Amino acid sequence: MKIAIDAMGGDHAPTVNIVGARDALKKYPDIETIFLVGKSELLSKEIEEHQLNDPRVIIVEAPDVVEMHESGAKALRRKKKSSISIATDMVKSGDADAVVSAGNTGASVAAATVKLRTLRGVERAGIASAIPNEYGICQLLDAGANPEAKPEHLVTYAVMGAVYSHYVLGVKQPKIGIMSNGEEDEKGTKFTKETFALIKDLESSGKAPFDFVGNVEGHDLFESDLNVVLCDGFTGNIILKSCEATAKAMSKWLKVEFKRNPLRILGAIIAKGAFKAVKKKSSYEYVGGSPLLGVNGVCIIGHGGSSALAIENAIRVARETVTLKVNPHIEEMLDRINPGS
Fold it and tell me: Which residues pair with 176 in a beta bridge?
């Protein structure tokens, strides 16, 4: 297996990408090659500093960098030799099996969509972001790739999310819901109502690879036994960033309150193990990265603030997605649902 990493992508690049690659190579001996794509002189210095002495690492020169604040699609057109562009080209040419980037999300989506195209039967790709809940992992799909989605796009997301949940997360029969403003069937906008009808029809046909639970609300992401929650990319991105901000705020508030007196400090020390366990369950570092489902290749998008641990786990997600043949399974399932399309 060969993985291309956008080594210049992310708030803490290239250090976290190099350390994450180093740790992943130690853990996964089946990774044949990791390509570090970026400014070779800088990468060489970082590799030496962080003792990445592994013959499986190859530096690929990319003189340009798409910055986090830039418009992804526009920057991609101007910077044809950017690290994310060249890393994605390696997947297109077959030199790499997957691309991992913690850089500009818009650029990652644009590069994968334009260069790799979509899978057979897929019109729009979607980002599947993991939300930890009481029952395991719930995939929020789409989390930002397709802000102006159509109802039929969400039907495809339902299939792709179910396939990913089944083959990667080990869910026998995934449960899927539509994000709405109420659980009743008649609730929602015209968009969500049309989506509801299409998915209900698919389930009624007996061809759906999932159980459709209907409309769900925001609290269901954390409290209900759900595997995939569907929404357009605009809504999904807002939900995702709101969840992240809430988690950070709660962490800060707890630290302030625990420091108010010695007794609380003692209580915090006693509960340290519990806090670590909750952090591990909820942190994007341990989740790794979000797969861009629907493109004809494996593209894993990491958080812009990714640490080395997050990059290591993003590489793990790429490895699992390739090894478990998620894309062929998606095409197979879509062919079964829409024969001859």
Answer: 212, 228
